[in-house]
Design goal:
The protein is α+β, with helices and mostly antiparallel strands. The protein has 6 helices and 10 strands; from the N terminus they run βββββαααβββααββα. The strands form 2 sheets. The chain has a 5-stranded mixed beta sheet. Strands 5-4-3-2-6 form a 5-stranded antiparallel beta sheet. Helix 4 packs across helix 5.
Amino acid sequence: MSSTLHVQWTVTSLIAPRPWLTCGRCGGIKPFQSSGKARLNANGKRLDAWLIYKCSDCENTWNRPLFERRNVRDIDPLLLEALQANDHRRIEALAFDLDGLRRSAGRIEEFAEAKVARQVLIGDPAAFHGIRIDLRVPLPCCLRLDRLLAAELGVSRTKIHALQVAGRLKLPPNGDRMLRRPVREGMVVELDAASVSERMLVEAAMSLAVG
Ligand SMILES: [Zn+2]
């Protein structure tokens, strides 16, 4: 009989990173946000593409280069189609692509706001001795793992670190260093429910998990 409850938390970042740029219209350095729209420009067989950002104060636009002077044969047809159609999901993924944004902007503001959806994968929520939480993180998110666990389990970050030191919270394969890192796709957290307080933790972990 397996006594491990296997759950999945999907952590979805809510606010795309914002570059801070000098706005030529309203003056000063201002945060720009993605407009959700891309622009393509054809020059013979070569294409340029940009993601359009807007100044948060005056709506002045800034074009973030996605690619420049690229031969149409060398562009992923699915990407091209998505850019032409302003496909919401693909444009959103580009807006959250921090590495891509860093190539064009020096100062970038990141946000830790995220929503968490929980789902039971395997196990009986009524009888178990441990819980394994698999993290799905579809968009880059700067939320630290210890902050996520503290918020979702309803305990302090000090408590989260104490549980890790006591070996009741395990973070394979890299252990405690992971606690201070941003949440990432594929992270796994294992919680021991051997004592009463940990049992309460697990119940907190489970409270929204069914359904
Ligand atoms: Zn402006």
